[in-house]
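Work Package 4 report. The design task specified in the project plan requires that, given a folded chain encoded as structure tokens, an amino acid be chosen for each position. We show below one input record used in the internal validation round.
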């Protein structure tokens, strides 16, 4: 049976506000870093959006190749990219 992969929650399950990181630790030496840290910009994207970014990089930014690989039209990939650019621009403010 396959291992269940835990996903990093991005939104509060109670109020839907963005979650922040409070504690990081090293499994090797047990060092802990505590504070109030914002997640990196790309980590705040949904899993689907992160996979799109990975596919984009792996295809060297070729939307034509991406469209072929994921089985959709070039304009569809372009629209997905445009929506992602808009979302990232708003998040980076």
């Amino acid at each position: 049976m396959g291992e269940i992969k835990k996903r990093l929650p991005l939104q509060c399950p109670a109020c839907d506000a963005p979650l922040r990181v409070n504690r990081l630790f090293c499994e090797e030496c047990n060092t802990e870093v505590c504070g109030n840290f914002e997640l990196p910009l790309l980590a705040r994207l949904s899993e689907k959006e992160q996979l799109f970014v990975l596919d984009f990089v792996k295809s060297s930014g070729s939307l034509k190749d991406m469209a072929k690989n994921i089985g959709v039209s070039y304009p569809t990939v372009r629209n997905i990219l445009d929506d992602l650019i808009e979302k990232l621009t708003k998040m980076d403010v």
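The radius of gyration is 17 Å. Validation will be extended to a larger panel in the next phase.
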